[in-house]
Amino acid sequence: MRFSTRAAIMGAFAGPAIAALVLMGAGPANAATTTATHTAASASDQWYGYGFCNPWHLERWDLRGDNTVDLWYLGKEYTYAVHFDQRGSCLGGTLTDTGLAPGEQVLRISGTVVRDHVTFSVTYPTNYQGTRTFDGYVHQWGWVSGTWSENGTEDGSGNWSLANAVRPACPGFFPWWGFGQYGAGCPVPFPYWWYY
After folding, report:
1. Which of 3, 23, 134, 174 has the maximum number of C-beta atoms within 10 A of its C-beta?
2. How far apart are CA 138 and CA 179, in angstroms?
3. Which H/E stretch holds residue 86?
4. 119 vs 43: CA distance, rounded Å
5. What confidence score (pLDDT) does residue 37 get?
6. Structural domain spans, the chain
7. What pLDDT sits at residue 56?
8. Selected residue with higher pLDDT from 40 and 106
9. Which CATH code, of 1.20.1600.10, 1.10.8.60, 2.40.128.120, 2.40.50.140, is assigned to 44-183?
10. Higher pLDDT, 46 or 151
11. Quick one: average pLDDT of 131-149?
12. How far is CA 61 from CA 91, 120, 133, 143, 192, in A?
């Protein structure tokens, strides 16, 4: 293709785009008159609390369902019932802390699952525990463990694990979708329920 033909074709596409930018005011002059504002998104504004999760992301692990968090603090073990909801890399659900007053025992989970890495948080109704964050990894056979910390006045930290292993996102011998280290996996929830 000759240069003049390519230039004419590119001009046909670029001309309307440039005209739209000029007419819509998306140029340097318009940028000078705008002011930047920042509003922090609260956990209640988004379904799972984190703005960087993707409900369509292909994942390796499916955490959905009931489980138990075993937490160690100052040499003592504490257990909490959890129910995980997962859509792609977005993790939600509830954690039940029976040590709290009735009506305040069920805490909302928000977090992410990316490949083998799991992070989720719960916010306590008092500043004593504040927000407790669980950070961990899913091991080869589905066992999950890691460390936790909280930003309240108690300032606790320690180790945690899930009592039950989680299942692979791709059931049985179903092949992973996508490609490469970051794209390989299956949708969560898996669209073909009869494979489980």
Report:
1. 134
2. 20
3. strand 76-87
4. 15
5. 37
6. 3-30, 44-183
7. 86
8. 106
9. 2.40.128.120
10. 151
11. 96
12. 11, 15, 20, 11, 16
Gyration radius from the chain CA atoms = 24
Residue 122 pLDDT level (bands cut at 50, 70, 90) = very high
pLDDT over 90, % of the chain: 49
Neighbours of 88 (CB within 10 A): 21
Contact 167, 62 (CB under 8 A): yes
Which own/partner pairs from 90-95 qualify as long-range (CB within 8 Å, at least 24 positions apart)? 90/47, 90/48, 90/50, 90/53, 90/54, 90/55, 91/48, 91/53, 91/63, 91/118, 91/120, 92/47, 92/48, 92/49, 95/69, 95/122
Question: Amino acid identity of 78?
Answer: Y
CA distance 132 to 76: 17
